[in-house]
Design brief:
Elements lengths: L7 H18 L3 H16 L6 H20 L3 H18 L2 H17 L3 H19 L5 H16 L2 H19 L4 H16 L3 H18 L5 H16 L3 H19 L4 H17 L2 H19 L4 H17 L2 H18 L5 H17 L2 H19 L4 H17 L2 H19 L4 H17 L2 H19 L4 H17 L2 H18 L5 H16 L3 H19 L4 H16 L3 H19 L4 H17 L2 H19 L4 H17 L2 H19 L4 H17 L2 H19 L4 H17 L2 H19 L4 H17 L2 H19 L4 H17 L2 H19 L4 H17 L2 H19 L4 H16 L3 H18 L5 H17 L2 H19 L4 H17 L20 H6 L2 H4 L5 H4 L3 E6 L5 E4 L7 E4 L8 E8 L20 E4 L3 E5 L13 E6 L3 H4 L12 E5 L7 E3 L4 E4 L5 E7 L4 E8 L4 H7 L4 E11 L8 E9 L4 H7 L4 E3 L2 E4 L4 E4 L1 E9 L2 E3 L6 E6 L7 E10 L6 E9 L9 E7 L22 H5 L1 H4 L13 H8 L3 H7 ...
Antiparallel strand pairs: 1-4, 2-3, 3-7, 4-6, 5-12, 6-12, 7-11, 8-9, 8-12, 10-11, 13-14, 13-15, 13-17, 14-21, 16-23, 18-20, 18-22, 19-21, 22-23
Helix pairs in contact: 1-2, 2-3, 3-4, 3-5, 4-5, 5-6, 5-7, 6-7, 7-8, 8-9, 9-10, 10-11, 11-12, 11-13, 12-13, 13-14, 13-15, 14-15, 15-16, 16-17, 17-18, 17-19, 18-19, 19-20, 20-21, 21-22, 21-23, 22-23, 23-24, 24-25, 25-26, 26-27, 27-28, 28-29, 29-30, 29-31, 30-31, 31-32, 32-33, 33-34, ...
Length: about 1450
């Protein structure tokens, strides 16, 4: 339309349009905008520029700006404000210029350009100040506007400062009760609301309300608005009843003031709906939204933006209910209205696209979610610019999608984009920035980068504490997530501490039934679950469940999660039916709320599969995993980390089924995805390496297994720290490999590391600790330490009974293990009792077809086999086999073991063909499913060899030996006991075939080894040949094993390479405990000293092997042409004597033996055979017919003497320790403590005579070093203060040279000391550590203990074994001060030195009544010739073993049972002299 001059008519029309716009503006912005736009078009079509017309133009343009701003149409607003500003400048109206700047600032605020916003508002304020001196009411609006900007920037202190300036002006200009002041209070309340200072917020709102109530009528709509805002606060606090009360007040006012169909009433219904939504009362929420919608449809029509908002809110309800289709339907309705009524780039449309993206995110439809967020982002970038906080939110949401997809780098990229915008737009301390740091922490947590995660949470926390105060729910959320990290790290106490901090804030800030509190209880339950505190875990889950059911209803996905976790607890407790019931409840909710393809549904199928796996229902397990896998592939794609869990578990099934190649294939698929998605150091990758190691372990590829475990361990140590429970499992796995390899010390080391971490991280009663005790017990079982085994299993059992209840499969496993011990001990009834206990639990917990039940039947069959009940054994094996075939199919390794044992039964029955048939079945399966070098295959070859031997088919037997040996050498190395057993058995076959060594050559009778030779007795003192100590005390290698009829046995000593004893089954007629002990004692004739010189040739007898004691002494074997007991002794120094020869020696070998009770050695003419040990050193193997002591000698030239003596240990003596102190006048004086290491036979009076008169025999007794053999060499002596304190610290660690050859009497060590503790019983502990590398590395300990006798014995009473010196007056004067506390008055120890001489030769009777071990009694007899010394040694050794439990009452009872009633009565009355 062409420009035209204005007429009165046209001016009136423009004014009319403007007036109509004013009339509609209160209720209908869109109608008002239509009239203003028509007026604008009219007035812009004319060229009248009079001041009146320009003023009208300005008014029309400013109205269009304000409506556009209200509806976020910033482009239109910007266009019209530019026109308005031009007119204002033309008119030079400062007030209008300031108004335009305010409008312009508001536009920039909506666009997120807070810097420009602040500039515009500040310019406006300056204009207003210049026009009215800063005291006019116009400037109030500027302060409020600037305050609003600061509020949005999170600069809360600055915002309050602006509002405070506004308030001061208002109070001065308007008084205290003006509605404008109420609005300022309201604004200040909004700041406190953002800070989470809800009490301060309500205080401000209350001030605002009081003014309004006084200044306005009680039914004014403004009062309703304040009530509504107060309701909003109560809603955020979770005080839903209070919120509804406020909304109800607001509603009543509005109904009265505005009628029933006003849009404000619809808004109130909408707020009430929001409360019900947060309460989880979704039906009530929808009812409110429906009321709101009806009013809006009637009052605003079908296409009003308010209707879109209500539809949007209804969509939010459906989203929270998990009704995703309904949610999308509502969002779609909202979107259609918005697209029709608003500009297509309106921010509200972007919000709707964002909400639709949230639905797709929850559904796991990540591509659709990203598409929606992309649409939202496009609008926001176009309408709001690139730095608006809303754009940061969209980037944030896109990051959440990538997080769920496992695309962690992409997630961090999105969060980083969000962060940059927030930092620029909001400053460094805005809560939104805290939220972004928070989510970045979530990514790092998922990646296993726990330190980085905690760093992000800490950044978030600092901002929140500064911006929101200490009790804001957002801070609770941060504490919560920090707890999640600590939970992942296994730092359970730290996790609970964080959750408790979170809970404390939530209980104070929110209603007690708020879903956030439920989540905290839930996570606390997770901690207790990890700690094995299952009852506590269920208690927390139950608390969580009650809140959720009340707040969210019965079908919320969050409730499904709680049921899910309760199922996990029941699964870990072995309550599989309860677990499945919980998972089923969870699944029903998920299917209804989330649909059939949601990732959460996949997880439930996954866990149901885990239950079936633990029950041994492998087909059912695979079916569940398959369902889970299909959902994951559809929802998450092929490379999502969640799919790796399914690959893992399918691999676990294949592992249990013995399908090792399939298992490795699954783990490899998992590994590829993990490496791509998670990087190389994520804990999940460590788990995969561990699982691959498990496969190699099962296959017997131990080096490969250890390599995988080491890879896993390296990642875990780096990602999780040194004390995480996950590391425990890796140490466990390594320990298991070492156990299978026979490396028992290494195995115990691994289990020890595991136990240390568990005790620190999990406490003393966690099921994992029980498992570790069991594993330690397994090592002891292999070592034949049965008491130690049962002790470990008992520890395990106590923990399991306390934490898991009486019917958990783990308890069945422990009973099973205890049965294995009794089986090896030959306690068959006890073994069957344990297996029966195990079986009852297994049948109840696992059903009748679980593989564990097959294992129990199998072991019961082993018992019957040992008892010779062959039909019962076959019956048990058959039961086992049926279960295994059903559970595993026909090719599982477990089946091979059953076939093997059935073969053993047939072999014992003499049914050799049936036996070979069973072994052959076993072998075919093993060759098919295991590697060809698996140890199990070697065992099968060995079993077949046994049959061939019994059939006399020696060539076939040797062929089997050879196959077995090749496998063993490759799979378990050269030092495993099984290797030694195989060599021994092969030697046995060669002996049976007649392939024996040469008969010992005839030699001159240069030495009569008969015990009647008196010269020999002088050369071989009895107490030098016999250490007289139990092997454990003396430090000599020893092993004991209980041998059963019908089994082969091989005994080796790891510390003595080459030493071996082979006992075939046919040689044992009854049950016997066999002990092998190795001694390196070397009396003079063993040291190369000349005994007989044949002319001038200087020949010597030289010891070539250690002395080996075989017990029980004199035990006779059944020996025939096919079965012989073989002893192999190492002769490593033959290589030195004849270095250039191979199996040819020009030195004669002498095999000598003697009875343990006989002092004379006898020469044996035995067939022998040279063999090499694993190190290539020579050994001699020969048959024996009875147990005795054996040693190898040779008659050699003197030129070899230096070579031999260089290698063998030097001369040893049995010693005892004696202590002396200098006299003292006062207890505080420094005294000299003298420790004497003396020859056992040395007269104490001789030592006393050598000492200065200032020394006295201290009333102390020694234990630990008493009767120990010390060889020549340097020893590190460490003084550990107990009752004495060494004054000179340099003397606490000294080196003493022990040389019995130069000084055969004694060696003394001096300390300057003070008595520091008069109440202790142990005064000092002295360790003697050999420093020479060739010496026995065993540390010797000496405990210096106080004697009970307070009466010193005269020095002349040398008959007493422990004489005390003459008593000086100085000594008696201070006797009270230096007398130490006697300790427990009921202790038997004070009686020993009063009764031992009276007991005399009856001490052995007393020892048996005290249940002293037979071998200890025998050792004490060998150790001492005097019966009184034997008695006192027995009493003190028993007291050392029993401690304070050896009471006077126990001693009195034992004396009476030993027919020593008179002595018992004297002890009872304590009247002995």
């Amino acid at each position: 339309m062409a420009n035209q001059s204005i007429t009165a008519a046209s001016l009136e029309e423009i004014k009319s349009l403007f007036s109509k716009g004013l009339s509609y503006e209160t209720d209908n912005d869109q109608e008002a905008l239509a009239y203003y736009t028509k007026a604008s078009n009219h007035i812009e079509s004319i060229d009248d520029t009079t001041q009146y017309v320009d003023q009208l133009r300005y008014m029309i343009f400013s109205k269009i700006c304000k409506i556009s701003i209200r509806h976020h149409v910033t482009k239109r607003a910007a266009m019209y404000v530019e026109k308005a500003l031009q007119i204002a400048n033309k008119l030079q109206k400062q007030v209008q210029i300031a108004e335009c700047l305010d409008i312009q600032g508001e536009i920039k605020r909506l666009e997120g350009d807070y810097n420009d916003t602040s500039r515009d508002f500040s310019k406006s304020r300056e204009i207003k100040i210049s026009t009215d001196g800063g005291k006019g009411l116009n400037v109030i609006n500027s302060y409020n506007n600037i305050g609003n900007v600061y509020l949005q920037q999170g600069k809360y202190d600055n915002a309050l400062s602006m509002y405070d300036k506004s308030l001061k002006i208002e109070l001065e200009a308007l008084g205290h009760n003006h509605p404008s002041i109420a609005q300022t209070y309201h604004n200040m309340g909004n700041v406190y609301r953002e800070q989470g200072k809800y009490d301060d917020t309500l205080l401000m709102y209350d001030k605002s309300l009081k003014i309004k109530l006084e200044a306005l009528s009680h039914n004014h709509p403004s009062i309703a608005t304040t009530y509504g805002n107060m309701g909003n606060i109560y809603r955020e606090q979770g005080k839903y009843d209070d919120a509804l009360s406020m909304y109800d007040k607001s509603l009543k006012i509005r109904l009265k003031a505005l009628g029933h169909n006003h849009p404000s009433i619809a808004s109130t219904y909408g707020n009430m709906g929001n409360v019900y939504r947060q309460q989880g009362k979704y039906d009530d929420a929808l009812s409110m939204y429906d009321k709101s919608l009806k009013i809006q449809l009637e009052g605003l029509g079908h296409n009003h933006p308010s209707i879109a908002t209500t539809c949007h809110n209804m969509g939010n309800v459906y989203l929270e209910q998990g009704k995703y289709d309904d949610a999308l339907l509502m969002y779609d309705k909202s979107l259609k209205i918005q697209l029709e009524t608003l500009d297509h780039n309106h921010s509200s449309i972007a919000t709707t696209y964002g909400s639709m993206g949230n639905v797709y995110l929850q559904q796991g439809k990540y591509d659709d979610a990203l598409s929606m967020y992309g649409k939202s982002l496009k609008i926001q970038l176009e309408t709001l610019g690139h730095n608006h906080p809303s754009i940061a939110t969209t980037y944030h949401n896109m990051g959440s999608v990538y997080l769920q997809q496992g695309k962690y780098d992409d997630a961090l990229s999105m969060y980083d984009k969000s962060l940059k915008i927030q930092l620029e737009a909001l400053g460094n301390n805005h809560p939104s920035i805290a939220s972004t740091y928070h989510n970045m922490g979530n990514v790092y947590n998922k990646q296993g980068k726990y330190d980085d995660a905690l760093s992000m949470y800490d950044k978030s926390l600092k901002i929140e504490l500064e911006a929101l105060g200490h009790n804001h729910p957002s801070i609770a959320s941060t504490y919560h997530n920090m707890g999640n990290v600590y939970l992942q790290q296994g730092k359970y106490d730290d996790a609970l501490s964080m959750y408790n901090k979170s809970l404390k804030i939530q209980l104070e800030a929110l209603d007690h039934n708020h879903p956030s509190i439920a989540q905290t209880y839930h996570n606390m339950g997770n901690v207790y679950d990890e700690q094995g505190k299952y009852d506590d875990a269920l208690l927390m889950y139950d608390k969580s469940l009650k809140i959720k059911l009340e707040a969210l209803g019965h079908n919320h996905p969050s409730i499904a999660t709680t049921y899910h976790n309760m199922g996990n607890v029941y699964r870990e407790q072995g309550k599989y039916d309860d677990a499945l019931s919980m998972y089923d409840k969870s699944l029903k909710i998920q299917l209804e709320a989330l649909g059939h393809n949601h990732p959460s549904t996949a997880q439930t199928y996954h866990n149901m599969g885990n239950v079936y796996l633990q029950q041994g229902k492998y087909d059912d397990a695979l079916s569940m995993y398959d369902k889970s896998f299909k959902i994951e592939l559809e929802a998450l794609g092929h490379n999502h980390p969640s799919t790796t869990n399914t690959y893992h578990n399918i691999g676990n099934v294949y592992l249990e089924q013995g399908k090792y190649d399939d298992a490795l294939s699954m783990y490899d698929k998992s590994l590829k995805i993990e490496l791509e998605a998670l990087g190389h150091n994520h804990p999940s990758i460590a788990t995969t390496y561990s699982n691959m190691g498990n496969v190699y372990d099962k296959q017997g590829k131990y080096d490969d297994a250890l390599l995988m475990y080491d890879k896993s361990l390296k990642i875990q140590l780096e990602a999780l720290g040194h004390n995480h429970p996950s590391i425990v499992q890796t140490y466990h796995n390594k320990g298991s490999v070492y156990l299978e390899q026979g490396k028992y010390d290494d195995a115990l080391s691994m289990y020890g590391k595991s136990l240390k971490i568990e005790l620190e991280a999990l406490g003393h009663n966690h099921p994992s600790i029980a498992s570790t005790y069991s594993n330690i017990g397994n090592v002891y079982l292999q070592q034949g330490k049965y008491d130690d085994v049962l002790s470990m299993y008992d520890k395990s059992l106590k923990i399991q009974l306390e934490t898991l209840g009486h019917n958990h499969p783990s308890i069945a496993s422990t009973y099973h293990n205890m049965g294995n011990v009794y089986l090896q001990q030959g306690k068959y009834d006890d073994a069957l009792s344990m297996y029966d206990k195990s079986l009852k639990i297994q049948l109840e917990a696992l059903g009748h077809n679980h593989p564990s039940i097959a294992s129990t039947y199998h072991n019961m069959g082993n018992v019957y086999l040992q008892q010779g009940k062959y039909d019962d054994a076959l019956s048990m094996y058959d039961k086992s086999l049926k279960i295994q075939l059903k559970a595993f199919g026909h090719n599982h390794p477990s089946i091979t073991s059953t076939y093997g044992n059935m073969g053993n039964v047939y072999r014992e029955q003499g049914k050799y063909d049936d036996a070979i048939s069973m072994y052959d079945k076993s072998l075919k399966i093993q060759l098919e499913v295991l590697s060809h070098n698996h140890p199990s295959i070697a065992i099968t070859y060995s079993n077949m060899r046994n049959v061939y031997l019994q059939q006399g088919k020696y060539d076939d037997a040797l062929s089997m030996y050879d196959k077995s040996l090749k496998i063993q050498l490759e799979s378990i190395g050269h030092n495993h006991s099984s290797i030694a057993r195989t060599y021994s058995n092969m030697g046995n076959v060669y002996l049976q075939q007649g392939q024996q060594g040469n008969i010992t050559p005839d030699l001159p009778n240069v030495l009569n080894l008969d015990h009647d030779d008196p010269g020999l007795e002088k050369q071989i003192p009895h107490d030098l040949i016999y250490p007289g100590m139990t092997p454990a005390l003396a430090g000599y290698p020893s092993i004991s094993i209980k041998c059963q009829r019908g089994q082969d046995y091989n005994l080796t000593l790891p510390k003595v390479p080459g030493l071996q004893l082979d006992v075939p089954a046919a040689c044992i007629t009854d049950e016997v405990i066999i002990t092998v002990t190795c001694y390196y004692a070397d009396p003079p004739y063993c040291r190369g000293l000349p005994i007989l010189q044949n002319g001038d040739d200087g020949n010597h007898f030289v010891q070539l092997s250690p002395i080996v004691r075989l017990e029980p002494d004199g035990y006779q074997f059944v020996v025939d042409s096919t079965s012989q007991v073989l002893l192999q002794l190492p002769i490593p120094y033959v290589n030195q004597l004849t270095p250039d020869r191979d199996n040819e020696f020009d030195i004669p070998i002498k095999i000598c033996c003697r009875s343990n009770d006989d002092e004379g050695w006898r020469l044996q003419s035995l067939q022998y055979q040279y063999v090499r040990d694993d190190n290539g050193s020579y050994c001699l193997r020969f048959p024996i017919q009875h147990f005795s002591e054996y040693v190898l000698y040779s008659y050699v030239k003197s030129t070899f003497t230096s070579i031999v003596t260089y290698f063998w240990p030097s001369y040893k003596q049995r010693i005892k320790a004696i202590t002396f102190t200098s006299k003292m006048a006062d207890i505080n004086d420094t005294i000299q403590l003298k420790l004497i290491l003396a020859n056992k036979k040395e007269d104490q009076n001789v030592i006393i005579e050598d000492l200065n008169n200032e020394f006295i025999k201290t009333p102390l007794a020694t234990f630990g070093l008493e009767n120990v053999i010390l060889e020549n060499g340097h020893y590190k002596v460490t003084f550990k203060k107990r009752g004495f304190d060494c004054c000179n610290s340099d003397y606490c660690h000294r080196t003493v040279c022990i040389n019995w050859n130069q000084n055969p009497n004694y060696h003394d060590i001096d300390y300057e000391c003070k008595i520091i503790n008069e109440t202790t019983r142990v005064i000092a502990e002295i360790d003697l550590d050999p420093t020479d590398p060739q010496k026995d590395p065993s540390t010797r300990h000496c405990w210096i203990k106080k004697l009970s006798s307070s009466e010193p014995v005269s020095q002349q009473s040398s008959a007493s074994p422990n004489p005390t010196p003459p008593v000086s007056s100085d000594y008696r004067q201070n006797e009270r001060e230096i007398s130490l506390d006697e300790g427990n008055k009921d202790d038997a120890e004070p009686c020993f030195y009063k009764i031992y001489e009276k007991i005399g030769g009856n001490w052995k009777v007393l020892a048996r009544k005290l249940n002293v071990d037979h071998y200890k009694i025998k050792a004490i007899q060998r150790n001492n010739d005097d019966v009184n010394e034997q008695c006192i040694e027995m009493l003190y050794q028993y007291h050392q073993d029993q401690g304070s439990s050896f009471t006077k009452l126990k001693l009195i009872q034992a004396l009476k049972e030993s027919s020593l009633g008179q002595i018992a009565e004297q002890v009872e009355n304590m009247s002995l002299n």
